[in-house]
Amino acid sequence: MRSTTCSRPCRPTTDPLRDTVKRSVGTPQEPARARGSGFPPGFLWGAATSSYQVEGRNERSDWWSWEQQPGRIVGGDTSGEGADWWRGRAEEDFSRAAASGHNAHRLSLEWARLEPAPGRYDRAAFARYREILEAAKAASLAVSLTLQHFTVPQWLAARGGWTWAGVVERFSAYAARCVEAFSDVVDHWATLNEPTVLAQGGYLGTRWPPGSGSFAAYRAALVNMLRAHREGYRAIKAVRAQAQVGLVLAMPRYEPKRAVWRDRAAARLHDWVFNGNVLTALADELLLPPFALRPRRLEGLSQSYDWLGLNYYGRYRVRFAPLAFGAAFGRHEQTDSIRTATSDWGEVHPEGLIHQLRRLAALGVPLYVTENGVFEDRPGRQVEYLDAHLEASRRALDEGIDVRGYFWWTLVDNFEWAEGWGTPFGMFALDRATQRRSPRPVAALFEAWAKGRPPRR
Q: In 397-435, where do the E strands start and end?
């Protein structure tokens, strides 16, 4: 059930993607929930992937150049052949997903393949992506397609990437071209994936390209990404008015480490920098610090999404640190974090998923859990994590939050950015030497939930 009180004009509740899946699986007699699962008929069950991480040999991407530089990737890893999707293994992975109870898949396009030079589009790349998308449809998977999942073409990176003044125009032209080519085989469109993560990792930070290490670059990139989303939305609608277009946000949960005012203030500041300012911009079209030194309006942003995606991994416990200016006066101190020596996905905390869904629900559009997952840092971790977060998703539905799908990160082990190949998130393990896939226990659990047979407690 969807809230009828919105700070912006509420969207219609019809959803072509959901309706497509209802037709493909049939409409049960139960009016509210599929028997046993606690999830509604037509709910989307799938996994998420990104083009750069699974395709292999994206040689015109900024990340390809980045990973060739010594010291950029843990262990000196490179993406190499990835999971070999570009050369034909996407098709078999879609079949594998469908056989495991999936009725949808979230994937992305590689901008650098499709537009290898400014204004020059590659027909062969468009043809290969059509094969991939048609294969997903042939496997009875609804398609949620992201136009930009972190990477940009090398020619764009050379001009400043997301800080370049011309990036918004180029992105909207690219978006229009993709919709012209693929609208008949795509159910949902997402413009950008996790703009705050990219802005922090590559522009404020130095672990991702372009490695600017600059607050000014961070702010410019983030504002340009919001503008690009808005203009991309408009460009897509101009080509196909009925297209369902959204934005995918990463929203970790921030809580104080201790029950003292200093930790509470630091946690609120961390949440504002990473989550709250974006939500304010989307709801009220206001750019506030750190977006702008003084309030600015970004007109039309509140009318630029038909749905929103939530990428949620965990909770950070924030302890006040007065000298940590660059880290918003706080440091993260969790006990059960999913972490490596160089990255931290946060503490396992399913309640945080419900909390963030509540916040997004206030924006008055349908929601999807577009990424949620964990790598197998110990036996059984993935199974425990999936079960707990699907139970949390079911509780969110019981609260009346309009959640329409869940996508596990990820389908098959992939190149996990600066972490290389050391964090196997896949439902299916990948032997890189042979490209052989083998299911992990989490795949069977996901299938049980998707088919309405969750484990008894």
A: 403-409, 428-431
CATH number of 16-256+273-320+334-450: 3.20.20.80
The domains of the chain are located at 16-256+273-320+334-450
User: Helix, strand, coil proportions of the chain in percent (round to 5)?
Assistant: 40, 20, 40
d(Cα 439, Cα 412) in Å, to the nearest integer? 9
Q: What is the dihedral of CA 300, 303, 308, 311, to 10 degrees?
A: 10
Cβ–Cβ < 8 Å for 143, 186: yes
**Would you give per-residue pLDDT tens digits along the chain (457 residues)?**
333 334 444 443 334 344 433 333 332 223 244 445 789 999 999 999 999 999 999 999 999 999 999 999 999 999 999 999 999 999 999 999 999 999 999 999 999 999 999 999 999 999 999 999 999 999 999 999 999 999 999 999 999 999 999 999 999 999 999 999 999 999 999 999 999 999 999 999 999 999 999 999 999 999 999 999 999 999 999 999 999 999 999 999 999 999 999 999 999 999 999 999 999 999 999 999 888 888 999 999 999 999 999 999 999 999 999 876 667 778 899 888 899 988 999 999 999 999 999 999 999 999 999 999 999 989 999 999 999 999 999 999 999 999 999 999 999 999 999 999 999 999 999 999 999 999 999 999 999 999 999 887 6
Dist CA 328 CA 271 (whole Å): 10
Give 405's strand partners: 44
DSSP string, 13-28: S--HHHHHHHHHH---
Angle between helices 381-398 and 441-450 (to 10 degrees): 20
* Euclidean distance between CA atoms 358 and 351, whole angstroms: 11
Contact, 67 vs 79, CB < 8 A?
Answer: yes
C-alpha–C-alpha distance, residues 341 and 20, integer Å: 43
User: What one-letter code names the amino acid at 312?
Assistant: Y
- Partners of 431 in the beta sheet? 436
H-run or E-run covering 333: none
DSSP structure class, residue 199 = I
Q: Is 322 exposed, middle or buried (0-12, 13-18, 19+ CB in 10 A)?
A: exposed
Residues 6+ apart with CB under 8 A from 408: 46, 47, 48, 372, 373, 386, 427, 442, 446
